[in-house]
């Protein structure tokens, strides 16, 4: 991993942990650092400053339209329930919301429904 990639993965891991996401574990996906819930990847570093987050298709379209400075997709991700996040411009609060949503998408249903997200200021 590059220095920026290391720092960005540490940030993602720190935010996921601070949000209280249960049963997360580091792993790899396509040779890059990833976070998993019960063995299922919900986020991974794509490039040093780009994060792949799992995301429902309808939510993805809305987020890309509302905040293209943070969220985008390439042709590879069209029609796929994942989007790309620019880590160098997104703030911790917005990134935490995306991590929680991605985790909920991949966590087993019972685990996801038992999780109560922390209140945001």
Write a structural description.
The structure is a single chain. The protein is of the alpha+beta class and 121 residues long. The protein has a single domain (3-114), classed as Aspartate Aminotransferase, domain 1. The chain is 39% helix and 26% strand. The chain contains four helices and six strands. The chain has a six-stranded antiparallel β-sheet with strand order 1-2-3-4-6-5, covered by helices on one side. A hairpin with a 2-residue loop joins β3 and β4. The longest helix has 16 residues, at 3-18.
Note the overall shape.
Answer: globular
CATH uppermost class = Alpha Beta
Helix tally equals 4
Q: Assembly state here?
A: single chain
Order of helices and strands: HEEEEHEEHH
Mean pLDDT: 93
Strand content: 25-35%
Q: pLDDT under 50 segments (min length 5)?
A: none
Largest sheet: 6 strands, antiparallel
Give the termini separation.
33 Å
The CATH topology name reads: Aspartate Aminotransferase, domain 1
Strand order of the largest sheet: 1-2-3-4-6-5
As a percent range, the share of helical residues equals: 25-40%
């Amino acid at each position: 991993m590059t220095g920026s990639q290391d720092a960005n993965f540490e940030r993602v891991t720190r935010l996921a942990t601070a949000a209280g996401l249960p049963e997360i574990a580091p792993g790899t996906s396509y040779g890059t650092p990833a976070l998993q819930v019960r063995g299922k990847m919900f986020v991974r570093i794509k490039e040093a400053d780009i994060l792949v987050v799992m995301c429902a298709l309808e939510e993805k379209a809305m987020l890309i339209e509302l905040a293209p400075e943070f969220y985008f997709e390439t042709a590879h991700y069209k029609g796929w329930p994942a989007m790309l996040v620019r880590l160098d411009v997104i703030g911790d609060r917005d990134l935490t919301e995306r991590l929680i949503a991605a985790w909920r998408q991949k966590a087993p249903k019972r685990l996801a429904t038992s999780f109560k997200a922390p209140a945001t200021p």
